[in-house]
Amino acid sequence: MGIVLGANQYGKAEVRLVHVDRSTPRHVLTDLNISTHLRGAFDATYLTGDNASVLATDTQKNTVYAFARKFGVDEPEDFAIRLGRHFIESQEPVQGAQIEIDQLPWDRLDDHSFARPGGERRTTSVTFDGDQVWVVSGLTDLVVLKTTGSEFHGFPRDEYTTLPETTDRILATSVTARWRYSSADLAFGEIYPAIRSVLLETFSATHSLALQQTLYAMGRAVLEKFGDVAEVRLSMPNKHHYLADLSPFGLDNPNEVFIAGDRPYGLIEGQVLREEAPDAGSAWQFVPGFA
Amino acid sequence: MGIVLGANQYGKAEVRLVHVDRSTPRHVLTDLNISTHLRGAFDATYLTGDNASVLATDTQKNTVYAFARKFGVDEPEDFAIRLGRHFIESQEPVQGAQIEIDQLPWDRLDDHSFARPGGERRTTSVTFDGDQVWVVSGLTDLVVLKTTGSEFHGFPRDEYTTLPETTDRILATSVTARWRYSSADLAFGEIYPAIRSVLLETFSATHSLALQQTLYAMGRAVLEKFGDVAEVRLSMPNKHHYLADLSPFGLDNPNEVFIAGDRPYGLIEGQVLREEAPDAGSAWQFVPGFA
Amino acid sequence: MGIVLGANQYGKAEVRLVHVDRSTPRHVLTDLNISTHLRGAFDATYLTGDNASVLATDTQKNTVYAFARKFGVDEPEDFAIRLGRHFIESQEPVQGAQIEIDQLPWDRLDDHSFARPGGERRTTSVTFDGDQVWVVSGLTDLVVLKTTGSEFHGFPRDEYTTLPETTDRILATSVTARWRYSSADLAFGEIYPAIRSVLLETFSATHSLALQQTLYAMGRAVLEKFGDVAEVRLSMPNKHHYLADLSPFGLDNPNEVFIAGDRPYGLIEGQVLREEAPDAGSAWQFVPGFA
Amino acid sequence: MGIVLGANQYGKAEVRLVHVDRSTPRHVLTDLNISTHLRGAFDATYLTGDNASVLATDTQKNTVYAFARKFGVDEPEDFAIRLGRHFIESQEPVQGAQIEIDQLPWDRLDDHSFARPGGERRTTSVTFDGDQVWVVSGLTDLVVLKTTGSEFHGFPRDEYTTLPETTDRILATSVTARWRYSSADLAFGEIYPAIRSVLLETFSATHSLALQQTLYAMGRAVLEKFGDVAEVRLSMPNKHHYLADLSPFGLDNPNEVFIAGDRPYGLIEGQVLREEAPDAGSAWQFVPGFA
Known about the structure:
Chains A, B, C, D: It holds the Pfam family Uricase. The first copy, chain A, is of the alpha+beta class. Chain A has 2 domains: 1-130, Urate Oxidase (Roll), CATH 3.10.270.10; 133-291, Urate Oxidase (Roll). Helices cover 23% and strands 38% of the residues of chain A. Chain A is built from 5 helices and 12 strands. An 8-stranded antiparallel sheet of chain A has the order 1-2-3-6-7-8-9-12. In chain A, strands 4-5 form a two-stranded antiparallel sheet. In chain A, strand 1 (3-21) and strand 2 (28-40) form a beta hairpin. The longest helix of chain A is centred in the C-terminal third of the chain and has 18 residues, at 188-205. The first copy, chain A, is globular, with a radius of gyration of 23 Å. The two termini of chain A are 32 Å apart. The model of chain A has no long low-confidence stretch (mean pLDDT 96). Chains A and C meet through strand 1, helix 1, helix 2, helix 5 and strand 9 of A and strand 1, helix 1, helix 2, helix 5 and strand 9 of C.
């Protein structure tokens, strides 16, 4: 029974690119963290150390910075598509690629000063398989909380169940959402904040009977409003807020004082999609951390 | 030559308190990370394991949650003062205390839904030494950047100096600022955002010849505008943005494409104070990470 | 075009279990971080918030602790198999599961004292699909370095290539390895340290012409020596050590002084498998971060 | 009332130096994280941006790498002393300095291959004030645990006390220890592992009635055995392991199944010193995180 090389990819991870557009006095700042992954006819380097086909990861990094100068930095999706096409078209052994970009947000203070709000990041993962391309965009670390409008009851009770039922609890989560577009030719810069708003509004407006229900409602709302989105995948940890038991101190606690827990946490992951969505191909194959 | 116990303190670190004020339909959410440190006549526990004077750290934690219910959670400074006084007044062996509180910010989405912007935190450290109390408040992780308006030249060149002079560079830092109030009886909730604004405005408005100059300008501006602040201490890492060398690719780079570096980083720390400020006592003794 | 729920799972992540076996004075300490994920007939909770089928994640956590008492904690693989079978057999709606366990290592100091070496962790991910079960074990954060015996040359040079060729460089990486066993009934506690040794020995013994070659050699060596392993997947970041340019100071640098870089880093990921390995089914579907 | 500049320092933080001694085929690997802080006559740069006295932090970094080549890298303390003296002696405005070095440990696999155990780090902080020098060395992140031999009872009970007394609990902590030597001319490489062993042995051998007692015993043991150590400061978080309550499941729990908690945690900090130790001067002024 022989031993063979299976699926593989290689590239440069976390290339930190900051771009300043100075074409007007009101500078535009773009802050990206870029990872490139190449796939193709690279067996020789694994089997014998022959690197004749291996575009160095250092070269991939150089290409990122050179392209930023040559073409500017527009939307992360467009920049990723340009990079991926370049690697596939210019290097014969490269047959596929995945370009991942996280964008770090900055708030404007004046024409050339900025403050970074931290936390949340816009993400994109563009996958190439020969001529085909899939764009999966999203956001990560969007932390949201509701102080009411969340219940959890009616679940089965087995011999290990101690959780009381509740009709009013804090619901908090850190949303990671990724959605697959049905096209690679969209106004990504306009659609992103619109989807983000729908996610926030739906979290806020949904009276929750389970975090699963909130997750599905958020995914569904995006699909209902954005015809160019084929599917949405959401990963939502249940960041538990435990009601403090103040009875030993002769105090009640009418849903007012909570202990924010670190670990463990519930973790809900799900996919919402159109019944006749175009095939996902390998779009999700290398996207980390998703059902 | 004998061996003796020197300075010591003990307490409970990182008590995560989330408080919801439901007195109106527009809920008020307060999210705090609280650490208590007690000092006093605790030699016996160190020397013999006699715990008769040692208020358990678990009890300190319980007190935090009980006080949140009994008194509500107002400004972090006021909550810290109330906690510290309680420990000193109710426990004979407790002669001093330091109560540290970090506040995690939340942005309101609607009456009872919130999103957390991440990054920056408001901080306070209240120190008690018998009847005396000092309030040191501040903020941490305030990340700011200027795309122009920053120079660095005129520095000495020794045999190890290779850095070129520049009249236009990116200046970026993550501000940790702590300021000591000259009173423990102030409208802390009003003064905090005002000081934060002055720090941001001064960073933005200062044409910088050195990060040191920016640091001093920021501290001075706070002292000039806020008579109740006795001194300001600032720690500002220079988050280097290296101009990418694109000349190997036949490209110029007119301050447009930058490599954001992780390590190493410059680190500038300084204190700005009033000449006749009241004595700091032990206010800074246990405040981490400061010159 | 209808909108439907797709793949989904839910569970409790990062349940921190520490177990002490006191059956002899020489205590045995086991420190685990356990995540449970359940799959099955859970559509109702997503669509309507009906939780009649949803075994609470709190109950899953309780089960972990109760099982540790009832059955003890043996090898992580065996504990995961027992947990997974319980959820599938006792809860009708549960049709599949993934149980992930990371083990934190402890070194013994004496009969009941231990020190934790940090860093590296043993991992397992056991996947159930109805009656079938797959065991994927591995390790993560195994940081290794060679000061010589590593070359990199012969790679193509395009217009963005500046990297010089080298016949002697530092090679450093943080190995994440996962291997799929062809059986769920093995002496996991014996095979784990043996595979770990083979990985280390092969890293050490392989004269490297590319990190890809080292990766393949490590995977192949495991398959050659362990008939019960069907495939190995490896993710190996190239933790770059840049030779410091000391020429401005009139100094040479014969591979002696290096700058350890943080970001970016090369990232090599690959799979080595037996040609006639049993089918992987959904064993890898939810394993994070792998090609 | 005037506003003035107070205490200040600046430098380069986290210079990552890896040094390979190839003088024999059995390579010696040294992995350091170095921060330099300079103090002196630097008012002009803060007040007016005049940098004529400001040795660039980039130059400080270059000096680290050049010195590693010129002098090799011996013990961290010796390397720090050499660096600090250089800055003070070669730059007239520099009147004081603090050089901090963390050493990352590596275990040898063969003549030129190594594995990094992670976790624990050896540290040193060398402070210069004109001609004077103080050496404060230590370790951080030394995680230790005892499964028995730890009690906690006899503490006062106020209205907020709910903690039960115990005569057998898990005691776990992550030790940060720093000790001040009474000389800068010692065989630091020999004394370090000896002190580390005494800390571990004392943790292990002490029957603990309070973590405070264990802390003091550890500090005292170092002073008793090492005449060149003037004082020891220890920071020891109490990493709580909560006994799981299994009674709802009809199970007892005879100190066997524990929940490892993240936050909050007790935090014990204390100093043990010789009565007639030489003055500490500014040795501790800028050492982070210590009472």
